[in-house]
Design a protein that fits this description.
Layout: E1 4-9, H1 19-33, E2 36-43, E3 65-69, H2 75-80, H3 97-109, H4 119-132, E4 137-142, E5 161-166, H5 183-199, E6 202-205, H6 209-218, E7 224-226, H7 233-236, E8 248-253, H8 262-271, E9 278-283, H9 288-297, E10 302-305, H10 311-318, E11 323-327, H11 339-347, E12 351-354, H12 360-365, E13 371-374, H13 379-391, H14 408-420
Parallel strand pairs: 1-2, 1-4, 2-3, 4-5, 5-6, 6-7, 8-9, 8-11, 9-10, 11-12, 12-13
Helix pairs in contact: 1-14, 8-13
């Protein structure tokens, strides 16, 4: 019996880096090992606009069939307005007039997003596969949510089932409000989203709760599922906790912006009575001005900025921490549980996250023996957590009784059993 085939349309694919890449790299890797035949449609990396690259992920994709297409990338010219090589993530810089103009152009002329130039190329590649082969499922993942629009026009002409993956929300994504969108642009985006939601056979997100309620209102008859990103159990067997002696070491990895509550951490650290020298390691995509904020607020601390690290390097750094730090994006407390947070959980290191304690991420951290989601305004509770971590340095272990349920392989099995093998 031949393997069942599915096609995944994804803009982000190695050599691109980041959590959005890792989600489907691992899904396809384990789908392959579990008897499916994934076919990935992505684009020529020479023409892509990636925020960062991580070539180490390519090892997981060597046996995956890939179709790389050209694209049209007006996004490159738009990015120059920001003085960057790629579009910023998590916030929209608006420090000067040209950045505000660029944000307006992005929000009103690039709908649903600035990578929409890939749509005709992805659609052509998908049509060719559908004409030549029997495909069980087509999966489109966004952002960029324009990826879904490459699939929708082919629904009537071909027999396949369509799974739409929202790694982040679409029209209600928290930083959309920073694009100065006019009413016509907001409505156009909502129409695109609703059409996709209603025509798909199933919709997948990383969280459920309030996000599913909002999406269900737009597509009442739709089936919604939630599967987080998970962590790679094999990768964690290669690392052991190796704390620094004589220092209290805080580690933050990932995207950091002004739209996160890092000043609340700095305020708490300024007031904290520390018996050990403080070291803060920052790794990921962030403005140097944010690193400067840490150095200025804590002049006696050692602040190491590592820049963007490969996935393996980031995991190694996490295991050296006394506390792993996380900040929820303002306005996104109910929208996501990051893959990074699940990887933090897998290390056994205490986790301090600043955000809404009543969020899904907060409820998840409540299950840990040394983890907390604390409101940014609660300075005393932040201090109390940090002081306990310092007093019990090396002895406070963060355990989760159901950690095995969050492995990438386990979540892929849920994808198969809960969605792909179920009748529509």
């Amino acid at each position: 019996m031949s393997a069942r085939k599915l096609v995944i349309l994804t803009y982000y694919w190695p050599p691109s880096g980041g959590s959005g890449v890792q989600r489907w790299v691992y899904f396809t890797h384990y789908l392959k090992t579990l008897g499916w035949e994934p076919i990935v449609i992505t684009l020529d990396p020479k023409q892509a606009s990636y925020p960062q690259e991580d070539k180490s992920l390519q090892a997981l994709t060597q046996d995956i069939r890939m179709i790389r297409t050209p694209t049209r990338e007006p996004i490159r010219r738009y990015a120059r307005w920001f003085g960057k090589g790629s579009i910023p993530q998590g916030e929209v810089p608006q420090l000067h007039f040209f950045q505000r103009v660029a944000a307006f152009i992005r929000g009103n002329f690039f709908i649903p997003d600035a990578r929409k130039g890939w749509i005709p190329f992805a659609q052509k590649a998908l049509r060719t596969i559908l004409e030549q082969e029997t495909i069980d499922w087509v999966i489109s993942t966004g952002p960029p949510h324009s990826t879904h629009l490459a699939v929708e026009p082919l629904r009537q002409a071909f027999d396949f089932r369509w799974l739409v993956d929202f790694r982040d929300p679409w029209s209600e994504l928290f930083y959309n409000r920073q694009f100065y969108r006019l009413p016509f642009a907001v409505r156009k985006d909502q129409v695109y989203e609703q059409k996709v939601l209603q025509q798909a056979d199933a919709v997948l997100t990383t969280v459920e709760g309030e996000l599913h309620q909002k999406l269900q209102a737009k597509a009442p008859a739709q089936r919604f599922f939630a599967l987080p990103n998970g962590f790679d159990a094999d990768a964690f067997t290669k690392h052991q906790r190796s704390q620094r002696q004589g220092e209290f070491h805080l580690v933050y990895t990932g995207l950091l912006t002004h739209n996160q509550s890092y000043p609340a951490l700095l305020k708490a650290l300024q007031q904290m009575k520390s018996s050990l020298p403080l070291r803060i390691s920052l790794a990921g995509q962030m403005e140097l001005s944010l690193v400067k904020d840490f150095q200025t607020a804590l002049p006696e601390a050692i602040v190491d900025y590592h820049g963007y690290l490969t996935h393996a390097e980031a995991l190694a750094l996490m295991h050296t921490a006394d506390v792993l730090i996380n900040f929820i994006f303002e306005g996104a407390h109910t929208q996501m549980i990051s893959g990074k947070l699940l990887e933090y959980m897998a290390t056994g290191v205490p986790i301090l996250s600043l955000g809404d304690p009543q969020s899904e991420a907060g409820e998840l951290l409540d299950q840990g023996t040394a983890a907390a989601m604390i409101a940014p305004s609660d300075t005393q509770q932040i201090i109390a957590f940090l002081e306990k971590a310092q007093q019990q340095k090396g002895q406070w272990i963060n355990g989760f009784s159901n950690k095995k349920d969050w492995t990438r392989e386990g979540i892929t099995k849920r994808l198969i059993h809960e969605i792909l093998q179920k009748p529509v």
